[in-house]
Design a protein that fits this description.
single chain; alpha/beta; TIM Barrel; 8-stranded parallel β-barrel
């Protein structure tokens, strides 16, 4: 496993991370989860990403149990805040009240004293940006978080945030965007803006929930046990797996991956890790074998001809659909 600095920050993350969205606390039982965590550490994964809203706190609780046996300094733990965690008017968003209360709740569920990375899960137009920034800065000063970042923020808000922080407040060090071979719209503005300001990318859905593993074939039924065939997990994948043209493009990448001695997922992850500004790819796993396979993408070198061929096959593959 290779490790990269998170933007201009000193902390280093594994090139492949593990995320808990839709699995831990929802479809993954304790024994399977324990096996996945063990495989992650054995593979050199040190970056673990969750959020308070994943399974309404159950993911964090499960991770608190599964990560307890490991030395706290040996892993980088991230969580997020924004989405509703109750029915009250203050149980959502990025107000100082919600941020402070949810940070405490996440720490309790995760059974840790601090978070390495705390991220604003979306931008909150209903809260002054200065209030959010100062709340994050205060959490850093209190030692409850070490760094902070954001997920799916527009470039204009990123620039405004950096300017607001200046040299007085702790500025964000990470961006968590939806980024993959099939979702490249951050390349227009977000990626350049973050590079200019020393903000690293920890990307989610790098395999498009399994589509970039090549398991979904055009015109064929979804494989048994796959996310697309599971009503508990398939709400964000239904449209993608019905696009036969894109599925055909992915199948064409399969032979290229084979020629390179890689699996399809390893090729897709390696491509992401060649994009300037990407620190880590957050992958999901339903079993230990998946995290081991994905970890094999770390350190893979693709030459200029291979990168050009990938672009030729995929084409201008930019989707716009909401994910986690």
């Amino acid at each position: 496993m290779k490790y990269r600095r998170l933007g201009n920050a000193g902390i280093k993350l594994s090139e492949i991370g593990l995320g808990g969205w839709l699995t831990f606390g929802k479809t993954t039982d304790g024994n399977t989860g324990r096996g996945i965590i063990e495989a992650a550490f054995e593979s050199g994964v040190n970056f673990f990403d969750t959020a308070n809203v994943y399974a309404q706190g159950a993911c964090e609780t499960m991770w608190g149990q599964l990560l307890a046996p490991y030395e706290r300094s040996s892993f980088v733990l991230a969580s997020k805040v924004y989405f509703p965690m109750g029915e009250g008017p203050n149980d959502r968003g990025l107000s100082r009240k919600h941020i402070m209360e949810q940070c405490e709740a996440s720490l309790k569920r995760l059974n840790v004293d601090y978070l390495d990375l705390y991220q604003c899960h979306r931008h909150d137009d209903g809260t002054p940006l200065g209030e959010t920034v100062r709340a994050m800065d205060d959490l850093v000063h209190q030692g409850k978080i070490l760094y902070w970042g954001f997920s799916c923020w527009p470039a204009a808000k990123i620039r405004e945030t950096v300017n607001l922080c200046g040299s007085r407040l702790y500025a964000p060090v990470s961006s968590q965007p939806h980024y993959s071979l099939l979702m490249r719209d951050i390349e227009r503005e977000v990626l350049p803006t973050c590079r200019e300001n020393g903000i690293g990318q920890v990307v989610f859905s790098p395999l498009e929930q399994g589509i970039l593993t090549g398991k979904y074939r055009p015109g064929e039924p979804h494989p048994a046990g796959s996310r697309a065939s599971d009503d508990r997990q398939n709400q964000f994948i239904k449209d993608l797996v019905s696009d036969d043209e894109k599925l055909e493009h992915v199948q064409r990448l399969g032979q290229m991956a084979k020629d390179a001695g890689l699996t399809m997922s390893q090729l897709a992850l390696a491509w992401l890790l060649h994009q300037n500004g990407v620190t880590s790819c957050i992958t999901g796993a339903s079993g230990p074998e998946q995290i081991r396979e994905n970890s094999g993408a770390s350190g893979v070198t693709l030459d200029a001809d291979q990168l050009a061929r990938i672009d030729e096959i995929i084409g201008p593959a930019v989707y716009s659909h909401p994910l986690h």
